[in-house]
């Protein structure tokens, strides 16, 4: 595929539906159409070029390249889908649904749904366990009590209304995030074991919740409460830097997000962080490769 260095190159590359479909066929099938229902490549393409039919006697299903993907049954042109995906995957802080609506000519509600469906494409479905030196940390994400009306503030709860996010980053490698209910040892141990390879060097702050992991990991702590932030190769500056990026994305672009959808904003930020060294066309390529997923509006608003 031709590379593109900016949005003008991108729009020229995907200027019509035919170009988008051709690209999607290449991404999904490597140029050889396959039935999404039975997997057979014994298929017939109809003259309009958009519809296929499986020739297997047990199947005989009709399908298009969008069946079984995030684009299935969409009324939005692929040109707009692709442009939105490009913006979300390469823009340093993402884009709000209101701004996206203005840019691609849809309603704010449609842009909000579109953004979340693209974020669903940006998640790592089978991430590799982090190894080597791995920094782990947790942070609260959400609105401040001081931003609420005085009558709605909870003065006794410093983190009221916030959501806890666990993060781990391999030194010089990838970052992973996970929404956790609290910072108890049980929650932290489960999050670490799910994302960090046994035997890795795990660097954390003085949180006692990580203490029981000493048998599976080489645990090194930096004691922030005593003013210690770096000791030799032990520090958590990398994961704290990622938290800064995530919060700038949420505070600067979206201002606030609901706990219900926070994991998708984390997916978005993680996707860009893990591909910060690759080109724009590679980021877009990786996003579209992960289009074999579904997220309906009813599922999104929890009315499925």
Characterize the structure shown.
With 304 residues, this protein is an alpha/beta fold. Helix content is 37%, strand content 13%. It is elongated. Helix 3 (78-90) packs across helix 5, helix 3 (78-90) packs across helix 9 and helix 7 crosses helix 8. The two termini are 38 Å apart. The strands form two sheets. A five-stranded mixed beta sheet has the order 6-5-4-7-8, sandwiched between helices. Strands 1-2-3 form a three-stranded antiparallel beta sheet, with no helix packed on it. The protein has ten helices and eight strands. The chain folds into two domains: 7-124 and 290-300, no CATH class; 133-259, 2-Layer Sandwich (Nucleotidyltransferase, domain 5). The model is unreliable at 145-158 (pLDDT under 50).
Output the keywords.
304 residues; alpha/beta; Nucleotidyltransferase, domain 5; 2 domains; 5-stranded mixed β-sheet; 3-stranded antiparallel β-sheet
Quick synopsis:
The protein folds into two domains: 7-124 and 290-300, no CATH class; 133-259, Ribonuclease H-like superfamily/Ribonuclease H (Nucleotidyltransferase, domain 5, 2-Layer Sandwich). Helices cover 37% and strands 13% of the residues. The chain has helices at 7-13, 17-29, 78-90, 97-104, 108-121, 185-195, 237-254, 262-274, 280-289, 297-300, and strands spanning 43-45, 52-54, 62-63, 133-141, 163-170, 175-180, 201-204, 218-221.
């Amino acid at each position: 595929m031709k590379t593109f260095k900016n949005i003008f190159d991108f729009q020229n590359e995907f200027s019509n539906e035919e170009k988008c479909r051709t690209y999607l066929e290449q991404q999904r099938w490597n140029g050889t159409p396959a039935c999404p229902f039975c997997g057979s490549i014994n298929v017939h393409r109809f003259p309009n070029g958009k519809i296929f039919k499986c020739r297997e006697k047990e199947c005989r299903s009709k399908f298009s390249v969008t069946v079984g993907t995030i684009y299935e049954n969409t009324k939005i042109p692929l040109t707009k889908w692709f442009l939105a995906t490009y913006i979300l995957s390469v823009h340093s802080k993402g884009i709000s649904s209101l701004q996206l609506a203005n840019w691609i000519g849809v309603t704010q509600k449609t842009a909000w749904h579109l953004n979340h469906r693209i974020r669903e494409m940006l998640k790592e479905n089978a991430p590799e366990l982090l190894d080597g030196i791995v920094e782990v940390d947790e942070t609260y994400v959400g609105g401040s009590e001081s931003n609420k009306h005085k009558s709605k503030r909870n003065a006794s709860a410093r983190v009221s209304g916030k959501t806890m996010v666990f993060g781990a980053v391999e030194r010089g490698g990838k970052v992973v995030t996970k929404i956790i209910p609290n910072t108890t040892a049980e929650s932290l141990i489960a999050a670490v074991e799910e994302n960090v390879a046994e035997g890795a060097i795990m660097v954390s702050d003085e949180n006692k919740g990580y203490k029981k992991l000493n048998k599976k990991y080489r645990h090194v702590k930096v004691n922030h409460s005593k003013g210690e932030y770096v000791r030799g190769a032990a520090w958590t500056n990398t994961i704290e830097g990622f938290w800064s990026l995530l919060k700038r994305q949420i505070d600067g672009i979206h201002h606030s997000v609901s706990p219900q959808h926070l994991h998708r904003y984390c997916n978005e930020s993680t996707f860009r962080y893990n591909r910060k060294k690759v080109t724009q066309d590679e980021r877009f390529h990786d996003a579209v490769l992960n289009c074999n997923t579904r997220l309906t509006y009813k599922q999104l608003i929890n009315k499925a």
